[in-house]
Structure formats: C-alpha cells, structure tokens
Specification:
Strands 3, 4, 5, 6, 7, 8, 9, 10, 11, 12 and 13 form an 11-stranded antiparallel β-sheet that branches. A 9-stranded antiparallel β-sheet has the order 1-22-16-19-18-17-20-15-2. It is built from 4 helices and 22 strands. 32% of the residues are buried. The two termini are 27 Å apart. The protein has 3 domains: 36 residues, no CATH class; 148 residues, no CATH class; 180 residues, no CATH class. 12% of the residues lie in helices and 40% in strands. By secondary structure, the protein is mainly beta.
Length: 402
C-alpha cells in the first residue's frame, strides 16, 4: 500500500530545493533506478526567471533629501569653504589644575606670557592648488552641547558668539596649524575653570576663511587632537607650560546648493544629501524566492568630487515609511565600485522582504562616511537622458511550477 504526504506550499518548495541536487545527479543516469526517481526532471518542479528594469521597462522614481544630524562623535572636525560649502567648528577646553594653581589664580598671582591654539590637519577637500589655510577664532558666549548641536543650531536666536575674532600670528603647516590667542582672554577662562562655582567657558568658534576644507583631529580618535598651550609664571618666577585638553568638539557643514537637478542622484557627506529610490517590482510573483537582486548605479564622473581619504562605498537601506525618513536597520546593504563608473551590490534581502511583507516603500541611499568629510557622489538618476545609465535592478528568482 502506497502512502502519500501532502506538504504545504512553502514547505513543498523548500523540500524540492533541498532534493534538487539529488535529482540532478540521478537524472544523469542512462537508465532509471529501481525507485523511479530517474524518470523525474527537476525542471518539472521549479523555474528560475529574471527581472531586469532596463529590459522590462519598469517604472522607477527618485527624490533628493537633506537630513539634519549631529556630528558630535565625528572622527574629524571640518573647517573651510569650498564652492557652495561652508564648514565651521566649535571647541571647548578644560584645564586640569593643581590646588596650588587654583589658589594662585584666585589670588591673581598667575601671569600669562603666551597662549597658543594648536590643531592637526588630517584631511583635505577642494582645490589642490590652494595652499593658504586659515580661519578666524571667535569666543562663544552661549552654552552648547556637542551631542545635540547641528547646522540648525547656528541660528543666531540660540547661538551667540563674539563677532570680533581673537586670533593672531596664524601659522599654516602640513602637520600642524597654530595661532595666538589673547593672554587676558585665556587667563579669564582659566580663572573661570578654576572656580568650581562658575560655569566653564563656552569655548571657541572656528569660522573659515580659506577656500578649501580641512579635517582636523577630533577627540575620541587615535590622532592628535586640538590643544590650547599656555605659558605662565607664578609670582613672577620662571615660566611653566600647561596644556588644556579638548573636552568637546563638533562641526557643522552648510550649503547653498538645492540638489534639484532631475538628471542626477547626489549623495554628499557633511551636508547629508541622500536620496530615495523606488522600483516597481509588482511583476514578480509574491511567492517567489529571490536568488539575487543586484542594484547598479552609474556614476557621473564630472559631477563627483572626493577628498584625500574617504570610504568609497554607499549604504542602501530599506525604507519603512513614505511620509518621513524611517528605516529598518536590519536591512542595510553596501554598494561598492566594481568599475570606474559603476557601483553595485546585492540587495536580495530587501527585495525578498518587499515580497514577504507586501510593502515596498523603496530604498534610502547615502554615503558610508556621512560625518568624516564632504565627499560628493553623483549618479545618473531615474530621469537620465541615457536610459541605459539609469539605476538598474537585476533580479533572479525561483518560482514553483503549478
């Protein structure tokens, strides 16, 4: 007596995929075996199909957006001007005083002979022919939090700084940039820090004047960070040196560009220019198993620009809402450069989830190093005049034959 087992639809498909290699091996025999499996053709059970947005004339759409985020934990502090970009930085210092120094400061028995700001360049973006780097130093008058400060925080209604710059003797170098700060100003900061009953000074604002952008060593990294070196004397005795350490730093990047060129997808670090991209995949059966889904973007070489060191890859994230920028962090993929003008990556998990959930809100594209520089990745958009250069999604999927 023969027994038959009826498997649920999905389990049956998985079962067939599991035994497929066995069936392929058996089907190569010249004669059917005693069980009769040699009479079965694996192609009778499943079918592998392809879906290509260029071949199948699939509708796609994109839109640009700017996200305002905080760069309080950035690995570089950016300062400078370049084209339509302006990068400014804020720093706050802390002195570690002995009890003796605190007492002498309170008694006005400390005299300063020099105060020097030192910053350490580790990155450059912009015109390579320009050599003179500079910025103005302004005293900040209002308290700020490096974990919350964004480009919007520069609004004069809640960010106050002295309009008169306080630096002098600016010296630009490849490995270190220095400038002198007023002795009386720095001494006042030292006294405020030594007096535990007074709120610490709010720090300094670096306002760029150079026509290119530099990245400076930031706190929390393994590179040299900005310091304030002070030479002082006690009661007229010989000079001694003390260094204030950076306890908070942050930068903000603003731009006058509106990113409204319909032929380009622009992803830019620093200003956090990102893009939403959506493909219509309704032609793929809902019960399909996605084998691969390769997203391909064609870079516009003339409209892209990069600094001295950067992450040459992109993030592709699954959007979960259309009205706001909401993503599912469990679905994050990377696009890498496969050819000089092509970036590609397999987003099969995202596409499979679109089918499984029945919800396709599209993709969010961004750079992988949003705060470390101002790299500009420009790609041909869904409206590109060259149809073959538009974003491409190539999908291979398996379905069960009825």
């Amino acid at each position: 007596m023969n027994e038959y087992f009826i498997l649920p639809k999905l389990k049956k498909l998985k079962y067939l995929l599991l035994v497929l290699p066995i069936l392929l091996f058996i089907s190569c025999s010249d004669e059917p075996n005693s069980t009769g499996y040699g009479l079965l053709n694996p192609e009778d059970f499943i079918e592998i199909r392809s879906f290509d947005t260029t071949r199948d004339s699939v509708h796609q759409e994109f839109s640009q957006l700017i996200q305002v985020e905080n760069f309080g934990a950035a690995r570089r502090i950016l300062v400078g001007n370049y084209k339509n970009l302006t990068a400014s930085a804020l720093m706050r210092f802390e002195f570690l005083f002995s009890e003796e120094i605190k007492k002498l400061l309170s008694e006005n028995k400390i005299t300063l002979s020099a105060a020097k700001l030192k910053v350490y360049p580790i990155y450059r973006f912009g015109d390579s022919t320009r050599t003179n780097f500079s910025f103005n130093v302004h005293e900040i008058k209002s308290w700020w939090d490096s974990d919350q400060f964004t480009a919007d925080s520069l609004n004069p209604s809640h960010f106050d700084f002295d309009n008169s710059p306080i630096e002098s003797n600016f010296l630009d170098g490849d490995s270190i940039v220095t400038c002198t700060l007023p002795n009386d100003k720095v001494l006042a900061w030292m006294k405020a820090i030594a007096d535990t009953g007074i709120k610490n000074p709010s720090g300094i604002y670096l306002k760029p004047t150079a026509n290119f952008i530099r990245g400076l060593g930031a706190i929390g990294t393994n590179v040299k960070t900005s310091t304030l070196e002070v030479v002082y004397s006690k009661n007229g005795t010989s000079n001694d040196t003390i260094n204030a350490v950076t306890v908070a730093d942050v930068h903000v990047v603003t731009t006058t560009e509106n990113y409204n060129d319909p032929s380009l997808i622009v992803l830019q670090s620093g200003v956090l220019a990102k893009a939403k991209l959506k493909f219509d995949i309704s032609r793929i059966p809902k019960d399909a198993i996605i084998n691969s889904a390769v997203l391909e973007l064609t870079r516009n070489l003339s409209k892209s620009e990069f600094g001295t060191s950067f992450q040459d890859s992109l993030y592709v994230l699954r959007l979960t809402d259309t009205s706001k920028i909401s993503i599912d962090s469990n679905f994050a993929h990377v696009l890498v450069q496969s050819r000089p003008d092509i970036y590609e990556g397999n987003i099969a998990r995202i596409v499979q989830d679109w089918l499984n959930s029945g919800q396709n809100f599209g993709l969010l594209l961004s750079t992988r190093d949003p705060e470390g520089g101002v790299e500009r990745f420009a790609f041909e958009s869904s409206n590109s005049a060259d149809f073959n250069k538009r974003p491409i999604l190539k999908i291979y999927y398996t379905i069960r034959k009825d």
